[in-house]
Specification:
Number of helices: 11
Number of domains: 1
Helix content: 40-55%
Largest sheet: 9 strands, mixed
CATH architecture: 3-Layer(aba) Sandwich
Mean pLDDT: 93
Shape: globular
Length: 248
């Protein structure tokens, strides 16, 4: 993204900081620096358990998501598209196998869905190589210890809040492993909060809303490109990322 877009949005950035601080969000990185990091982002990567949900499992050993968060990810991608005229890369990287994550990734046409990857940096390395991007160009949304190998190297780090782990949050801050901690907790629309905060920093929130509300030609162009994206599934075998079986 042209850094001038960020500079021109500075009055809005201060307003964004105030709005999200008031609801309890914590900017661990000064917001102008966070916005600068966002200007370099080319991909949005999400953990699943504890990010889109509270990590509780259903009878099928899977964990679900909500449509509010789903719309947030869609509008975030559209916001990026409006600024860059191209889609950002997107992926889910999970240490577990979640049928609902498969469904979500396919329905929302994410680029990739990685599952049963206990050492997640291997998945990120594969994702970056596949799409010819750097780890520093990835925004990662995460919540727990398994995610730290990615948080150490990615460009923008969004931590999902959980009141039950104050020592962990302190560890993230002390080790520069998080740029923003959400006000909302796991499974309580924290992804939507993240998405809106980032769209706010992109400086085009009102345009995003208006274009989507009117189902405008530019939104239709974005949607057609998004829907054409085929989701790829990967897992790990003997330490190597391999294609996963496409869920039925």
């Amino acid at each position: 993204m042209n850094i001038d877009l960020i500079k021109n949005a500075m009055p809005t950035i201060i307003h964004i900081e105030s709005l999200f601080t008031q609801i309890g969000g914590v900017f661990c990185t000064p917001i102008n620096l966070l916005a600068s990091k966002l200007s370099e982002v080319k991909a949005f990567v999400f953990d699943w358990d504890g990010v889109f949900n509270n990590a509780a499992k259903n009878e099928n050993k899977s964990s679900t998501f909500n449509e509010v968060d789903s719309m947030g990810t869609n509008m975030l991608r559209f916001s990026y598209f409006l600024n860059q005229n191209t889609l950002p890369k997107t992926a889910i990287i999970s240490g577990e196998k979640n049928e609902m994550a498969f469904y979500f990734a396919q329905r929302e046409h994410f680029d990739g869905c990685y599952f049963k990857v206990p050492h997640k940096i291997i998945a990120l390395d594969h994702f970056c190589q596949q799409h010819n991007i750097k780890a520093s160009e990835v925004c990662y949304v995460f919540d727990d210890v398994l995610d730290l190998s990615i948080a150490k190297v990615c460009g923008l780090k969004i931590g999902i809040n959980r009141k039950a782990n104050p020592l962990f949050k302190n560890y993230l801050v002390q080790n520069n492993l998080v740029d923003y901690i959400t006000a909302h907790e796991s499974g309580n629309f924290a992804v939507r909060e993240t998405s809106e905060m980032l769209i706010g920093l992109y400086g085009n929130f009102d345009q995003c809303m208006d274009e989507r509300c009117n189902f405008s030609p530019i939104y239709q162009t974005y949607l057609a490109q998004r829907q054409a994206q085929v989701t790829q599934f990967f897992t790990i075998t003997d330490g190597i990322i391999v294609a996963g079986k496409l869920p039925q």
